[in-house]
Hints:
This protein is an alpha/beta fold. It has helices spanning 20-34, 63-100, 116-121, 137-142, 150-156, 182-193, 212-226, 241-251, 266-282; strands at 9-13, 38-44, 107-113, 127-133, 161-164, 173-177, 201-207, 232-237, 256-260, 287-290. The chain has a ten-stranded mixed sheet with strand order 3-2-1-4-5-10-9-6-7-8, with helices on both faces.
Amino acid sequence: MNPTNANRKIIAAVDRSHFSETVARYGQWLANQLTLPLELLHVVDRHPERASKSDDHSGAIGIDAQEHLLADLSLEDEQRTRQKREAGREFLANLQSTLAGTSNQSIDIKQRLGDLEEALSTEQDLTSVFVMGRRGRSAEMTHRDLGRNLERVVRALQQPILTVTDIYTEPSRALFAFDGSSRCKQGIRWLANNTSLRNLSMHIVIAGKDNRANQEQLTWAKNKLEKRGYPVTSQIIQGDPETVIANEIAERKIDLLIMGAYSHSPLRSLLFGSRTADLLRSATVPALLLR
Length: 291
């Protein structure tokens, strides 16, 4: 284990969608690679949707009726939350059992009541990498390409986040979408420090002009990883990053994309923030987002 990972873990956020086993298997792969324990985390919404019979509360009601209504709604919420928690515990136990026979590391399960962003934020100091599905139960129902929680959670967290697709394939060929930014350089250093990932063939790409500045940046990144034992190729390709990355993934049969993520700066977010979502939508492989 790398000393920077001491006393840390991998957290896979699962939500009872049919994508959850894939999320768990990518979490297991990463935990095995980094020799860290895996935690399967399920968050139960503290504000479950109410039954339709209670939806319409219009009209004038007396104080006593109001009190009874509030008591009924509170009881409904409590019962519905209890049912969700019981279903969640069963779901986590089954998922843990599914992974147990193929894991080299310990697998723990945890269920929390509340908000996903809040639950993950409180775990940051103890977590090396978070793993999330690119889509969750909301996207499962609506066929959206990105789950409603993903962008919000990614913006809130400071640790790397592995966002995964619907089907599990063990990664062996990675593409690092490098732009010379401090965040990408930090990602190169993170990979260099985690040498247990050097079984990945690494292809570093700058989508931009083939000038001296980009050549120097690319040489720095390539040398940094090669010195730590990674097999590395590198290339500068002119063109729109979304198109360049998508073409490279297809042509080189890449199965893991590594890239920078959203910035907290409002201006930088306005200029570059949507690029993360664009690349996630166009990429057909899991993406390790650097924070």
